[in-house]
Automatic annotation (TrEMBL), chains A, B:
UniProt name for this protein: Hydroxymethylglutaryl-CoA lyase
Keyword Metal-binding: yes
UniProt KW Repeat keyword: no
PANTHER family assigned: HYDROXYMETHYLGLUTARYL-COA LYASE
Amino acid sequence: MTMLRLPSEVSVREVGPRDGLQNEPPVPTEGKVALIDGLSQTGVKRIEAVSFVHPKAIPQMGDADEVWAKIAKNPDVRYSALVPNSRGAERALAAGFREIEVVVSASDTHNRKNVNRSTEESLEDIKAIIALAHKENATVEVVVSTSWGCPYEGDIAVDRVLDVASRALESGADALTYGDTTGMATPTRVEALVTGTQGRMPDVYLGLHFHNTRGTGLANVLTALQLGVTNFDASVGGLGGCPYAPGASGNIATEELVHLLEDMGVATGIDLERLLLVAAEAEKLVGHELPSQVLRAGPRTRTTPLDA
Amino acid sequence: MTMLRLPSEVSVREVGPRDGLQNEPPVPTEGKVALIDGLSQTGVKRIEAVSFVHPKAIPQMGDADEVWAKIAKNPDVRYSALVPNSRGAERALAAGFREIEVVVSASDTHNRKNVNRSTEESLEDIKAIIALAHKENATVEVVVSTSWGCPYEGDIAVDRVLDVASRALESGADALTYGDTTGMATPTRVEALVTGTQGRMPDVYLGLHFHNTRGTGLANVLTALQLGVTNFDASVGGLGGCPYAPGASGNIATEELVHLLEDMGVATGIDLERLLLVAAEAEKLVGHELPSQVLRAGPRTRTTPLDA
Protein backbone atom coordinates (compact mmCIF):
# COMPACT_ATOMS: atom_id res chain seq x y z
CA MET A 1 0.00 0.00 0.00
CA THR A 2 2.25 2.75 -1.19
CA MET A 3 -0.12 5.08 -3.01
CA LEU A 4 -2.16 6.57 -0.18
CA ARG A 5 0.30 8.56 1.88
CA LEU A 6 -1.67 9.72 4.86
CA PRO A 7 -0.66 11.61 7.99
CA SER A 8 -0.58 9.61 11.23
CA GLU A 9 -2.92 12.01 13.01
CA VAL A 10 -5.17 14.97 12.38
CA SER A 11 -6.83 17.65 14.48
CA VAL A 12 -10.60 17.83 14.14
CA ARG A 13 -12.47 21.00 15.05
CA GLU A 14 -16.08 20.42 16.01
CA VAL A 15 -18.22 23.23 14.54
CA GLY A 16 -21.69 21.80 15.17
CA PRO A 17 -22.55 24.20 18.01
CA ARG A 18 -21.81 27.18 15.75
CA ASP A 19 -21.94 26.45 12.00
CA GLY A 20 -24.37 23.61 12.59
CA LEU A 21 -26.89 25.29 14.90
CA GLN A 22 -26.64 28.58 13.01
CA ASN A 23 -28.31 26.84 10.08
CA GLU A 24 -30.95 25.00 12.08
CA PRO A 25 -34.13 26.32 13.69
CA PRO A 26 -33.25 28.02 17.03
CA VAL A 27 -32.74 25.72 20.03
CA PRO A 28 -32.76 26.59 23.76
CA THR A 29 -29.60 27.79 25.48
CA GLU A 30 -29.52 24.79 27.80
CA GLY A 31 -29.55 22.47 24.80
CA LYS A 32 -26.53 24.24 23.33
CA VAL A 33 -24.69 24.00 26.63
CA ALA A 34 -25.45 20.28 26.90
CA LEU A 35 -24.30 19.76 23.31
CA ILE A 36 -20.99 21.54 23.83
CA ASP A 37 -20.40 19.79 27.16
CA GLY A 38 -21.18 16.44 25.57
CA LEU A 39 -18.74 17.14 22.76
CA SER A 40 -15.99 18.23 25.13
CA GLN A 41 -16.05 14.70 26.63
CA THR A 42 -15.48 12.89 23.32
CA GLY A 43 -11.77 13.55 23.05
CA VAL A 44 -12.15 16.29 20.44
CA LYS A 45 -9.51 18.96 21.05
CA ARG A 46 -11.11 21.99 19.41
CA ILE A 47 -14.70 23.24 19.51
CA GLU A 48 -16.08 26.25 17.67
CA ALA A 49 -18.56 27.12 20.41
CA VAL A 50 -20.45 30.24 19.35
CA SER A 51 -20.41 33.23 17.04
CA PHE A 52 -20.74 36.86 18.06
CA VAL A 53 -22.99 38.20 15.34
CA HIS A 54 -25.84 40.67 15.48
CA PRO A 55 -28.90 38.81 16.86
CA LYS A 56 -31.07 40.40 14.19
CA ALA A 57 -28.88 38.85 11.50
CA ILE A 58 -28.59 35.42 13.14
CA PRO A 59 -31.03 34.97 16.06
CA GLN A 60 -29.73 31.42 16.59
CA MET A 61 -26.56 32.85 18.13
CA GLY A 62 -28.20 35.60 20.22
CA ASP A 63 -27.31 33.82 23.47
CA ALA A 64 -23.58 33.43 22.76
CA ASP A 65 -22.50 35.11 26.02
CA GLU A 66 -24.82 32.95 28.09
CA VAL A 67 -23.78 29.73 26.36
CA TRP A 68 -20.13 30.51 26.89
CA ALA A 69 -20.69 31.41 30.54
CA LYS A 70 -22.56 28.18 31.27
CA ILE A 71 -20.44 25.50 29.58
CA ALA A 72 -17.99 23.42 31.58
CA LYS A 73 -14.61 24.47 30.20
CA ASN A 74 -12.61 21.31 29.67
CA PRO A 75 -8.92 22.27 30.00
CA ASP A 76 -8.02 19.78 27.25
CA VAL A 77 -10.27 21.55 24.74
CA ARG A 78 -9.58 24.77 22.87
CA TYR A 79 -12.81 26.74 22.42
CA SER A 80 -13.16 29.35 19.71
CA ALA A 81 -15.71 31.97 18.68
CA LEU A 82 -16.44 33.12 15.17
CA VAL A 83 -16.90 36.83 14.50
CA PRO A 84 -17.91 38.75 11.38
CA ASN A 85 -16.32 42.11 12.32
CA SER A 86 -14.55 44.21 14.95
CA ARG A 87 -17.65 44.60 17.06
CA GLY A 88 -17.99 40.82 17.27
CA ALA A 89 -14.29 40.48 18.07
CA GLU A 90 -14.63 42.94 20.93
CA ARG A 91 -17.54 40.95 22.34
CA ALA A 92 -15.65 37.65 22.01
CA LEU A 93 -12.56 39.03 23.72
CA ALA A 94 -14.64 40.63 26.47
CA ALA A 95 -16.35 37.28 27.03
CA GLY A 96 -12.94 35.71 27.55
CA PHE A 97 -12.31 33.90 24.28
CA ARG A 98 -8.64 33.62 23.39
CA GLU A 99 -9.22 31.96 20.02
CA ILE A 100 -11.10 34.01 17.48
CA GLU A 101 -12.09 33.13 13.96
CA VAL A 102 -12.94 35.96 11.64
CA VAL A 103 -14.64 35.26 8.36
CA VAL A 104 -14.15 36.98 5.02
CA SER A 105 -15.49 35.82 1.71
CA ALA A 106 -13.34 35.38 -1.38
CA SER A 107 -16.47 36.34 -3.32
CA ASP A 108 -17.18 40.03 -3.12
CA THR A 109 -20.87 39.40 -3.81
CA HIS A 110 -21.10 36.84 -1.02
CA ASN A 111 -19.23 39.10 1.37
CA ARG A 112 -21.67 41.93 0.68
CA LYS A 113 -24.67 39.65 1.16
CA ASN A 114 -23.13 38.29 4.35
CA VAL A 115 -21.77 41.39 6.12
CA ASN A 116 -22.91 44.24 3.88
CA ARG A 117 -19.49 45.39 2.74
CA SER A 118 -16.79 44.49 0.26
CA THR A 119 -14.11 41.85 0.72
CA GLU A 120 -11.60 44.71 0.73
CA GLU A 121 -13.39 46.43 3.60
CA SER A 122 -13.52 43.18 5.56
CA LEU A 123 -9.79 42.67 5.01
CA GLU A 124 -9.11 46.13 6.42
CA ASP A 125 -11.26 45.33 9.44
CA ILE A 126 -9.41 42.05 9.92
CA LYS A 127 -6.17 43.98 10.30
CA ALA A 128 -7.75 45.90 13.17
CA ILE A 129 -9.19 42.74 14.73
CA ILE A 130 -5.81 41.03 14.69
CA ALA A 131 -4.12 44.00 16.37
CA LEU A 132 -6.86 44.07 19.00
CA ALA A 133 -6.71 40.33 19.66
CA HIS A 134 -2.94 40.13 19.83
CA LYS A 135 -2.98 42.86 22.44
CA GLU A 136 -5.14 40.52 24.53
CA ASN A 137 -2.91 37.52 23.85
CA ALA A 138 -5.62 35.98 21.71
CA THR A 139 -5.05 34.28 18.37
CA VAL A 140 -6.94 35.05 15.19
CA GLU A 141 -7.74 32.55 12.49
CA VAL A 142 -9.01 33.92 9.21
CA VAL A 143 -11.68 31.80 7.54
CA VAL A 144 -11.90 32.50 3.82
CA SER A 145 -15.39 31.47 2.81
CA THR A 146 -16.58 30.58 -0.72
CA SER A 147 -13.02 29.38 -1.36
CA TRP A 148 -14.22 26.83 -3.91
CA GLY A 149 -17.11 28.73 -5.34
CA CYS A 150 -19.87 31.19 -4.55
CA PRO A 151 -23.58 30.44 -4.76
CA TYR A 152 -24.05 33.79 -6.58
CA GLU A 153 -20.85 34.24 -8.59
CA GLY A 154 -20.11 30.59 -9.33
CA ASP A 155 -16.44 29.64 -9.63
CA ILE A 156 -13.90 31.74 -7.75
CA ALA A 157 -10.40 31.84 -9.26
CA VAL A 158 -7.70 30.15 -7.19
CA ASP A 159 -5.55 33.28 -7.46
CA ARG A 160 -8.31 35.40 -5.98
CA VAL A 161 -8.57 33.08 -2.97
CA LEU A 162 -4.79 33.04 -2.57
CA ASP A 163 -4.72 36.86 -2.71
CA VAL A 164 -7.33 37.17 0.03
CA ALA A 165 -5.52 34.57 2.16
CA SER A 166 -2.15 36.27 1.65
CA ARG A 167 -3.59 39.61 2.70
CA ALA A 168 -4.90 38.04 5.90
CA LEU A 169 -1.53 36.48 6.69
CA GLU A 170 0.30 39.73 5.97
CA SER A 171 -2.02 41.35 8.49
CA GLY A 172 -0.78 38.89 11.11
CA ALA A 173 -3.35 36.11 11.05
CA ASP A 174 -2.21 33.14 13.13
CA ALA A 175 -4.01 30.53 11.06
CA LEU A 176 -5.99 30.15 7.88
CA THR A 177 -9.03 28.05 7.03
CA TYR A 178 -10.62 27.68 3.62
CA GLY A 179 -14.37 27.31 3.81
CA ASP A 180 -16.35 25.44 1.17
CA THR A 181 -19.45 27.39 2.11
CA THR A 182 -21.95 25.69 -0.17
CA GLY A 183 -20.17 22.42 -0.97
CA MET A 184 -18.72 23.36 -4.36
CA ALA A 185 -15.29 21.77 -3.83
CA THR A 186 -14.17 18.64 -5.62
CA PRO A 187 -10.82 16.83 -5.25
CA THR A 188 -9.07 18.47 -8.23
CA ARG A 189 -10.15 21.89 -6.95
CA VAL A 190 -8.92 21.02 -3.46
CA GLU A 191 -5.60 20.01 -4.93
CA ALA A 192 -5.31 23.24 -6.92
CA LEU A 193 -5.99 25.50 -3.93
CA VAL A 194 -3.95 23.53 -1.40
CA THR A 195 -0.89 23.21 -3.63
CA GLY A 196 -1.24 26.89 -4.57
CA THR A 197 -1.27 27.77 -0.88
CA GLN A 198 1.69 25.54 -0.10
CA GLY A 199 3.58 27.31 -2.88
CA ARG A 200 2.77 30.88 -1.83
CA MET A 201 2.37 30.47 1.94
CA PRO A 202 4.52 27.45 2.83
CA ASP A 203 4.48 28.03 6.59
CA VAL A 204 0.78 28.65 7.09
CA TYR A 205 -1.23 26.73 9.68
CA LEU A 206 -3.93 25.55 7.28
CA GLY A 207 -7.35 24.12 8.05
CA LEU A 208 -10.12 23.05 5.70
CA HIS A 209 -13.84 23.36 6.24
CA PHE A 210 -15.95 21.26 3.88
CA HIS A 211 -19.67 21.06 3.47
CA ASN A 212 -21.16 17.87 2.11
CA THR A 213 -23.83 19.67 0.09
CA ARG A 214 -23.07 17.65 -3.03
CA GLY A 215 -21.64 14.52 -1.45
CA THR A 216 -17.97 15.33 -2.11
CA GLY A 217 -16.94 16.14 1.49
CA LEU A 218 -14.98 13.04 2.41
CA ALA A 219 -13.40 12.71 -1.05
CA ASN A 220 -12.15 16.26 -0.54
CA VAL A 221 -10.77 15.36 2.88
CA LEU A 222 -8.99 12.35 1.40
CA THR A 223 -7.34 14.53 -1.21
CA ALA A 224 -6.26 17.09 1.37
CA LEU A 225 -4.81 14.35 3.58
CA GLN A 226 -2.73 13.15 0.63
CA LEU A 227 -1.42 16.72 0.34
CA GLY A 228 -0.46 16.79 4.01
CA VAL A 229 -3.31 18.87 5.45
CA THR A 230 -4.07 17.82 9.04
CA ASN A 231 -6.76 20.24 10.29
CA PHE A 232 -10.40 19.69 9.45
CA ASP A 233 -13.71 21.12 10.56
CA ALA A 234 -16.78 18.90 10.93
CA SER A 235 -20.11 19.07 12.69
CA VAL A 236 -21.64 16.42 14.94
CA GLY A 237 -24.40 14.50 13.17
CA GLY A 238 -23.84 16.69 10.12
CA LEU A 239 -25.80 19.43 11.93
CA GLY A 240 -26.63 22.43 9.78
CA GLY A 241 -28.04 22.76 6.31
CA CYS A 242 -27.22 24.86 3.32
CA PRO A 243 -29.08 28.18 3.35
CA TYR A 244 -29.07 28.27 -0.46
CA ALA A 245 -30.48 24.80 -1.04
CA PRO A 246 -33.40 23.74 1.17
CA GLY A 247 -33.00 20.19 2.42
CA ALA A 248 -29.35 19.99 1.42
CA SER A 249 -26.64 18.86 3.86
CA GLY A 250 -24.38 21.14 5.82
CA ASN A 251 -20.93 20.42 7.19
CA ILE A 252 -19.37 17.01 6.84
CA ALA A 253 -20.48 14.92 9.82
CA THR A 254 -17.87 14.50 12.55
CA GLU A 255 -18.76 10.82 13.01
CA GLU A 256 -18.27 10.14 9.30
CA LEU A 257 -14.93 11.93 9.35
CA VAL A 258 -13.71 10.14 12.49
CA HIS A 259 -14.99 6.78 11.23
CA LEU A 260 -13.15 7.22 7.94
CA LEU A 261 -9.91 8.50 9.45
CA GLU A 262 -9.62 6.00 12.29
CA ASP A 263 -10.28 3.08 9.93
CA MET A 264 -7.44 4.31 7.72
CA GLY A 265 -5.09 4.50 10.71
CA VAL A 266 -5.22 8.28 10.99
CA ALA A 267 -5.65 9.10 14.69
CA THR A 268 -8.14 11.75 15.79
CA GLY A 269 -8.16 11.22 19.56
CA ILE A 270 -11.96 11.06 19.38
CA ASP A 271 -14.02 8.23 20.90
CA LEU A 272 -16.44 7.38 18.08
CA GLU A 273 -18.98 5.55 20.25
CA ARG A 274 -19.16 8.48 22.64
CA LEU A 275 -19.48 10.89 19.73
CA LEU A 276 -22.38 8.85 18.34
CA LEU A 277 -24.23 9.26 21.63
CA VAL A 278 -23.79 13.03 21.38
CA ALA A 279 -24.95 12.95 17.74
CA ALA A 280 -28.12 11.13 18.83
CA GLU A 281 -28.72 13.87 21.39
CA ALA A 282 -28.08 16.54 18.73
CA GLU A 283 -30.77 14.93 16.62
CA LYS A 284 -33.23 15.21 19.49
CA LEU A 285 -32.18 18.81 20.07
CA VAL A 286 -33.05 19.95 16.55
CA GLY A 287 -36.01 17.59 16.28
CA HIS A 288 -35.27 16.06 12.91
CA GLU A 289 -33.10 13.39 11.34
CA LEU A 290 -29.51 14.48 10.73
CA PRO A 291 -27.63 13.47 7.57
CA SER A 292 -24.79 11.56 9.26
CA GLN A 293 -24.60 8.12 7.65
CA VAL A 294 -22.56 6.61 10.46
CA LEU A 295 -25.18 7.77 12.96
CA ARG A 296 -27.80 5.91 10.89
CA ALA A 297 -25.89 2.72 10.04
CA GLY A 298 -23.40 2.51 12.89
CA PRO A 299 -19.66 2.07 12.40
CA ARG A 300 -18.43 -0.70 10.10
CA THR A 301 -17.24 -2.65 13.13
CA ARG A 302 -20.82 -3.04 14.38
CA THR A 303 -21.94 -6.45 13.07
CA THR A 304 -25.47 -7.83 12.94
CA PRO A 305 -26.37 -10.91 15.02
CA LEU A 306 -26.87 -13.91 12.74
CA ASP A 307 -30.43 -14.53 13.93
CA ALA A 308 -31.49 -10.95 13.21
CA MET B 1 -1.73 19.46 -10.25
CA THR B 2 0.43 16.38 -10.40
CA MET B 3 -0.81 14.31 -7.50
CA LEU B 4 -4.27 13.26 -8.62
CA ARG B 5 -3.71 11.03 -11.61
CA LEU B 6 -7.14 10.29 -12.93
CA PRO B 7 -8.34 8.40 -16.00
CA SER B 8 -9.81 10.51 -18.81
CA GLU B 9 -13.05 8.54 -18.87
CA VAL B 10 -14.95 5.90 -16.95
CA SER B 11 -17.85 3.57 -17.64
CA VAL B 12 -20.77 3.91 -15.23
CA ARG B 13 -23.24 1.08 -14.79
CA GLU B 14 -26.65 2.19 -13.58
CA VAL B 15 -27.95 -0.34 -11.04
CA GLY B 16 -30.95 1.58 -9.67
CA PRO B 17 -33.57 -0.56 -11.43
CA ARG B 18 -32.12 -3.71 -9.85
CA ASP B 19 -30.02 -3.13 -6.71
CA GLY B 20 -31.95 0.06 -5.96
CA LEU B 21 -35.51 -1.15 -6.37
CA GLN B 22 -34.72 -4.52 -4.81
CA ASN B 23 -34.18 -2.70 -1.53
CA GLU B 24 -37.22 -0.41 -1.78
CA PRO B 25 -40.90 -1.20 -1.25
CA PRO B 26 -42.29 -2.87 -4.43
CA VAL B 27 -43.24 -0.54 -7.32
CA PRO B 28 -45.47 -1.25 -10.34
CA THR B 29 -44.02 -2.80 -13.48
CA GLU B 30 -44.84 0.26 -15.58
CA GLY B 31 -42.86 2.43 -13.18
CA LYS B 32 -39.82 0.20 -13.58
CA VAL B 33 -40.13 0.31 -17.35
CA ALA B 34 -40.38 4.12 -17.32
CA LEU B 35 -37.37 4.32 -15.02
CA ILE B 36 -35.19 2.11 -17.23
CA ASP B 37 -36.34 3.90 -20.38
CA GLY B 38 -35.61 7.27 -18.79
CA LEU B 39 -32.15 6.10 -17.80
CA SER B 40 -31.39 4.75 -21.25
CA GLN B 41 -31.78 8.30 -22.62
CA THR B 42 -29.22 9.88 -20.27
CA GLY B 43 -26.13 8.69 -22.12
CA VAL B 44 -25.36 5.91 -19.64
CA LYS B 45 -23.92 2.92 -21.51
CA ARG B 46 -24.72 0.08 -19.11
CA ILE B 47 -27.86 -0.65 -17.11
CA GLU B 48 -28.39 -3.51 -14.68
CA ALA B 49 -32.06 -3.91 -15.52
CA VAL B 50 -33.46 -6.78 -13.45
CA SER B 51 -32.54 -9.83 -11.43
CA PHE B 52 -33.90 -13.33 -11.91
CA VAL B 53 -34.39 -14.47 -8.36
CA HIS B 54 -37.13 -16.50 -6.76
CA PRO B 55 -40.13 -14.20 -6.29
CA LYS B 56 -40.64 -15.56 -2.78
CA ALA B 57 -37.13 -14.44 -1.86
CA ILE B 58 -37.34 -11.02 -3.54
CA PRO B 59 -40.89 -10.12 -4.58
CA GLN B 60 -39.64 -6.75 -5.91
CA MET B 61 -38.12 -8.54 -8.91
CA GLY B 62 -41.00 -10.95 -9.57
CA ASP B 63 -41.87 -9.19 -12.85
CA ALA B 64 -38.38 -9.34 -14.38
CA ASP B 65 -39.55 -11.01 -17.60
CA GLU B 66 -42.31 -8.47 -18.09
CA VAL B 67 -40.04 -5.50 -17.39
CA TRP B 68 -37.46 -6.77 -19.84
CA ALA B 69 -40.12 -7.42 -22.52
CA LYS B 70 -41.57 -3.93 -22.20
CA ILE B 71 -38.53 -1.65 -22.12
CA ALA B 72 -37.38 0.14 -25.25
CA LYS B 73 -34.00 -1.42 -25.96
CA ASN B 74 -31.62 1.41 -26.75
CA PRO B 75 -28.94 -0.06 -29.07
CA ASP B 76 -26.31 2.17 -27.41
CA VAL B 77 -26.98 0.63 -24.01
CA ARG B 78 -25.80 -2.72 -22.71
CA TYR B 79 -28.46 -4.25 -20.43
CA SER B 80 -27.59 -6.91 -17.87
CA ALA B 81 -29.46 -9.18 -15.49
CA LEU B 82 -28.24 -10.37 -12.12
CA VAL B 83 -28.75 -14.00 -11.13
CA PRO B 84 -28.09 -15.89 -7.89
CA ASN B 85 -27.80 -19.39 -9.42
CA SER B 86 -28.13 -21.63 -12.52
CA ARG B 87 -31.91 -21.48 -12.49
CA GLY B 88 -31.77 -17.68 -12.63
CA ALA B 89 -29.15 -17.83 -15.40
CA GLU B 90 -31.38 -20.09 -17.46
CA ARG B 91 -34.26 -17.65 -17.09
CA ALA B 92 -32.07 -14.67 -18.01
CA LEU B 93 -30.72 -16.40 -21.10
CA ALA B 94 -34.18 -17.57 -22.15
CA ALA B 95 -35.42 -14.00 -21.80
CA GLY B 96 -32.71 -12.91 -24.21
CA PHE B 97 -30.09 -11.32 -21.94
CA ARG B 98 -26.58 -11.62 -23.28
CA GLU B 99 -24.90 -10.04 -20.22
CA ILE B 100 -25.31 -11.90 -16.99
CA GLU B 101 -24.01 -11.04 -13.56
CA VAL B 102 -23.80 -13.81 -11.04
CA VAL B 103 -23.24 -13.02 -7.41
CA VAL B 104 -21.21 -14.94 -4.85
CA SER B 105 -20.28 -13.75 -1.41
CA ALA B 106 -16.74 -13.74 -0.08
CA SER B 107 -18.34 -14.33 3.31
CA ASP B 108 -19.56 -17.86 3.71
CA THR B 109 -22.08 -16.76 6.34
CA HIS B 110 -23.47 -14.07 4.05
CA ASN B 111 -23.61 -16.47 1.12
CA ARG B 112 -25.61 -18.96 3.19
CA LYS B 113 -28.01 -16.25 4.37
CA ASN B 114 -28.36 -14.99 0.81
CA VAL B 115 -28.67 -18.17 -1.26
CA ASN B 116 -28.75 -20.92 1.36
CA ARG B 117 -25.48 -22.58 0.43
CA SER B 118 -21.75 -22.20 0.91
CA THR B 119 -19.45 -19.94 -1.09
CA GLU B 120 -17.81 -23.13 -2.39
CA GLU B 121 -21.13 -24.46 -3.66
CA SER B 122 -21.87 -21.13 -5.36
CA LEU B 123 -18.45 -21.18 -7.02
CA GLU B 124 -19.18 -24.64 -8.42
CA ASP B 125 -22.52 -23.42 -9.74
CA ILE B 126 -20.82 -20.41 -11.32
CA LYS B 127 -18.66 -22.76 -13.37
CA ALA B 128 -21.83 -24.34 -14.79
CA ILE B 129 -23.43 -20.93 -15.39
CA ILE B 130 -20.42 -19.70 -17.33
CA ALA B 131 -20.40 -22.79 -19.54
CA LEU B 132 -24.11 -22.38 -20.17
CA ALA B 133 -23.85 -18.68 -20.96
CA HIS B 134 -20.83 -18.99 -23.22
CA LYS B 135 -22.73 -21.59 -25.25
CA GLU B 136 -25.35 -18.89 -25.88
CA ASN B 137 -22.71 -16.25 -26.70
CA ALA B 138 -23.49 -14.45 -23.47
CA THR B 139 -20.91 -13.00 -21.11
CA VAL B 140 -20.78 -13.60 -17.38
CA GLU B 141 -19.55 -11.13 -14.82
CA VAL B 142 -18.96 -12.45 -11.33
CA VAL B 143 -19.88 -10.06 -8.55
CA VAL B 144 -18.08 -10.86 -5.31
CA SER B 145 -20.22 -9.40 -2.57
CA THR B 146 -19.09 -8.50 0.98
CA SER B 147 -15.65 -7.85 -0.54
CA TRP B 148 -14.82 -5.26 2.12
CA GLY B 149 -16.66 -6.80 5.01
CA CYS B 150 -19.70 -8.80 6.02
CA PRO B 151 -22.49 -7.56 8.25
CA TYR B 152 -22.33 -10.88 10.15
CA GLU B 153 -18.66 -11.86 10.05
CA GLY B 154 -17.12 -8.38 10.08
CA ASP B 155 -13.82 -7.97 8.22
CA ILE B 156 -13.09 -10.33 5.33
CA ALA B 157 -9.42 -10.98 4.62
CA VAL B 158 -8.14 -9.61 1.31
CA ASP B 159 -6.69 -13.02 0.46
CA ARG B 160 -10.07 -14.66 0.90
CA VAL B 161 -11.63 -12.20 -1.54
CA LEU B 162 -8.77 -12.68 -4.00
CA ASP B 163 -9.16 -16.47 -3.76
CA VAL B 164 -12.88 -16.29 -4.55
CA ALA B 165 -12.24 -13.88 -7.43
CA SER B 166 -9.45 -16.07 -8.83
CA ARG B 167 -11.68 -19.14 -8.74
CA ALA B 168 -14.32 -17.25 -10.71
CA LEU B 169 -11.80 -16.15 -13.33
CA GLU B 170 -10.36 -19.65 -13.61
CA SER B 171 -13.91 -20.83 -14.33
CA GLY B 172 -14.01 -18.47 -17.30
CA ALA B 173 -15.68 -15.34 -15.93
CA ASP B 174 -15.49 -12.46 -18.43
CA ALA B 175 -15.42 -9.73 -15.81
CA LEU B 176 -15.22 -9.19 -12.08
CA THR B 177 -16.91 -6.73 -9.78
CA TYR B 178 -16.26 -6.29 -6.09
CA GLY B 179 -19.36 -5.39 -4.15
CA ASP B 180 -19.24 -3.37 -0.94
CA THR B 181 -22.55 -4.82 0.12
CA THR B 182 -23.07 -2.87 3.33
CA GLY B 183 -20.72 0.06 2.84
CA MET B 184 -17.77 -1.21 4.86
CA ALA B 185 -15.05 -0.10 2.43
CA THR B 186 -12.69 2.77 3.13
CA PRO B 187 -9.90 4.09 0.88
CA THR B 188 -7.04 2.11 2.42
CA ARG B 189 -9.13 -1.08 2.13
CA VAL B 190 -9.95 -0.24 -1.49
CA GLU B 191 -6.27 0.22 -2.18
CA ALA B 192 -5.38 -3.10 -0.56
CA LEU B 193 -7.94 -5.10 -2.54
CA VAL B 194 -7.42 -3.34 -5.87
CA THR B 195 -3.63 -3.55 -5.76
CA GLY B 196 -3.90 -7.17 -4.63
CA THR B 197 -6.11 -7.89 -7.62
CA GLN B 198 -3.83 -6.06 -10.02
CA GLY B 199 -0.98 -8.21 -8.72
CA ARG B 200 -2.71 -11.58 -8.96
CA MET B 201 -5.11 -10.95 -11.88
CA PRO B 202 -3.45 -8.22 -13.95
CA ASP B 203 -5.66 -8.64 -17.02
CA VAL B 204 -9.05 -8.72 -15.32
CA TYR B 205 -11.86 -6.41 -16.42
CA LEU B 206 -12.55 -4.97 -12.96
CA GLY B 207 -15.57 -3.04 -11.76
CA LEU B 208 -16.36 -1.68 -8.30
CA HIS B 209 -19.74 -1.44 -6.64
CA PHE B 210 -19.84 0.83 -3.60
CA HIS B 211 -22.61 1.53 -1.17
CA ASN B 212 -22.62 4.85 0.66
CA THR B 213 -23.91 3.35 3.90
CA ARG B 214 -21.25 5.11 5.95
CA GLY B 215 -20.53 8.07 3.70
CA THR B 216 -17.30 6.72 2.23
CA GLY B 217 -18.59 5.93 -1.28
CA LEU B 218 -17.06 8.77 -3.28
CA ALA B 219 -13.79 8.72 -1.32
CA ASN B 220 -13.56 5.05 -2.29
CA VAL B 221 -14.23 5.90 -5.93
CA LEU B 222 -11.53 8.56 -5.85
CA THR B 223 -9.02 6.05 -4.51
CA ALA B 224 -9.96 3.48 -7.14
CA LEU B 225 -9.62 6.09 -9.90
CA GLN B 226 -6.11 6.85 -8.69
CA LEU B 227 -5.37 3.13 -9.03
CA GLY B 228 -6.66 3.07 -12.59
CA VAL B 229 -10.09 1.47 -12.10
CA THR B 230 -12.57 2.78 -14.67
CA ASN B 231 -15.81 0.81 -14.09
CA PHE B 232 -18.23 1.84 -11.38
CA ASP B 233 -21.76 0.93 -10.38
CA ALA B 234 -24.15 3.58 -9.05
CA SER B 235 -27.89 3.96 -8.63
CA VAL B 236 -30.01 6.90 -9.75
CA GLY B 237 -31.01 9.09 -6.81
CA GLY B 238 -29.14 6.72 -4.52
CA LEU B 239 -32.14 4.37 -4.79
CA GLY B 240 -32.04 1.42 -2.43
CA GLY B 241 -31.28 1.14 1.24
CA CYS B 242 -29.22 -1.18 3.34
CA PRO B 243 -31.20 -4.23 4.50
CA TYR B 244 -29.08 -4.48 7.65
CA ALA B 245 -29.42 -0.86 8.77
CA PRO B 246 -32.90 0.69 8.53
CA GLY B 247 -32.79 4.20 7.12
CA ALA B 248 -29.22 3.86 5.89
CA SER B 249 -28.20 4.72 2.32
CA GLY B 250 -27.80 2.22 -0.47
CA ASN B 251 -25.63 2.49 -3.57
CA ILE B 252 -23.70 5.64 -4.31
CA ALA B 253 -25.99 7.99 -6.23
CA THR B 254 -25.33 8.18 -9.96
CA GLU B 255 -25.80 11.96 -10.00
CA GLU B 256 -23.23 12.40 -7.24
CA LEU B 257 -20.79 10.15 -9.09
CA VAL B 258 -21.30 11.89 -12.45
CA HIS B 259 -21.17 15.34 -10.83
CA LEU B 260 -17.87 14.50 -9.13
CA LEU B 261 -16.27 12.84 -12.15
CA GLU B 262 -17.26 15.41 -14.76
CA ASP B 263 -16.06 18.29 -12.58
CA MET B 264 -12.69 16.58 -12.30
CA GLY B 265 -12.49 16.19 -16.07
CA VAL B 266 -13.28 12.47 -16.07
CA ALA B 267 -15.82 11.87 -18.83
CA THR B 268 -18.85 9.64 -18.22
CA GLY B 269 -20.90 10.33 -21.36
CA ILE B 270 -23.88 11.01 -19.08
CA ASP B 271 -26.00 14.18 -19.31
CA LEU B 272 -26.29 15.24 -15.66
CA GLU B 273 -29.32 17.50 -16.10
CA ARG B 274 -31.21 14.73 -17.85
CA LEU B 275 -30.18 12.28 -15.16
CA LEU B 276 -31.47 14.63 -12.46
CA LEU B 277 -34.89 14.63 -14.11
CA VAL B 278 -34.91 10.82 -14.00
CA ALA B 279 -33.81 10.92 -10.36
CA ALA B 280 -36.74 13.21 -9.53
CA GLU B 281 -39.05 10.68 -11.21
CA ALA B 282 -37.41 7.86 -9.26
CA GLU B 283 -38.20 9.73 -6.07
CA LYS B 284 -41.87 9.92 -7.05
CA LEU B 285 -41.83 6.22 -7.97
CA VAL B 286 -40.72 5.07 -4.52
CA GLY B 287 -42.66 7.81 -2.74
CA HIS B 288 -39.96 9.08 -0.42
CA GLU B 289 -36.92 11.35 -0.46
CA LEU B 290 -33.81 9.75 -1.92
CA PRO B 291 -30.36 10.33 -0.42
CA SER B 292 -28.72 11.91 -3.49
CA GLN B 293 -27.17 15.21 -2.42
CA VAL B 294 -26.88 16.56 -5.96
CA LEU B 295 -30.58 15.88 -6.49
CA ARG B 296 -31.29 17.99 -3.41
CA ALA B 297 -28.81 20.84 -3.91
CA GLY B 298 -28.35 20.82 -7.67
CA PRO B 299 -24.96 20.71 -9.39
CA ARG B 300 -22.27 23.17 -8.29
CA THR B 301 -22.72 25.06 -11.56
CA ARG B 302 -26.29 26.01 -10.60
CA THR B 303 -26.00 29.48 -9.03
CA THR B 304 -28.62 31.35 -7.00
CA PRO B 305 -30.08 34.61 -8.34
CA LEU B 306 -28.81 37.55 -6.30
CA ASP B 307 -32.29 38.71 -5.33
CA ALA B 308 -33.26 35.28 -3.99
